[in-house]
Amino acid sequence: MSFAEFGGPDVLRVIEAEEPRPGPGRIRVAVRAAGVNPVDWRIREGQRLSARPVELPSGVGLDAAGVVDEIGEGVEGVAVGDHVFGKGIDTYAEYAVLTAWAPMPEGLTFEEAAGYPSVTETALRVLRECEVRPGQTLLVSGASGGVGSAVLQIARDRGVTVIGTAGPANQDYLRGLGALATTYGEGWTERVRRLGRVDAALDLAGSGVIRDLVELTGDPRKVVSIADLGAPGLGVRFSGTAGSVPDALAEAAALVARGKLRIPVERTYPLTGAAAAHIDSRAGHARGRRVIVP
User: Fold this and answer.
1) Which of 123, 232, 237, 240 is least crowded, fewest Cβ atoms below 10 Å from its Cβ?
2) What are the Enoyl reductase (ER) domain coordinates in residue numbering (predicted)?
3) Angle ∠(12,239,135) on CA atoms, nearest 5
């Protein structure tokens, strides 16, 4: 999957490309599934992000789960044939090079595992940055997507009370993840106040709620956004720089093994359906993850 110009989903093309080769410290996998993340369509649109510079034509995708089929120089602890999940380059493809990986958690399908790398790294990072502590209450705006699903479960495992906002159809889903749930829309801040005091807040949807989150927490330093590029103008941290992906993968695997983290796959798409996947991702309202299956 590639695009030769920035633009809408119609710029995506399935092409025949030379198979990538893993350099030192990297591995190649036969991709069984690739996670769909908002950063994918943001890059495709040409948005200015802190990620690596994009040279056109460019491939698409950062997350994958698959079978190791080639190992770069200096790589140890993994063998051809191993099932892994991780983060890499141009993962909407039959073969992709991974720069960070871990053994696939037992009990997960390839489709499920492909949805974990970026969202668990992001969830762990923003939980650290908002400095919420056990016994406190965290408000998560846009809580039903992949990052929100991970945040809710990890925070609850750490003894944090979570209030999550989502659409009416996802209220039971949030409650099933241990959150106090309410809908967004008119009057939503009052509904949140009725659920309890808010000590920290996360904006995961970029739906124009930064001022409200600051008002609810009483301090812009207690709010972190991953979706609103205008957040710094209101004194709120915008978190767009990844932390340690290997550490995040290891923690995700441990949480899965303990039964404390499970992110459902809402929908899978063939490689030819990547444009539809981007349209759906941009629209939001997910319940878990969306995944490309080459």
Assistant:
1) 232
2) 7-292
3) 130
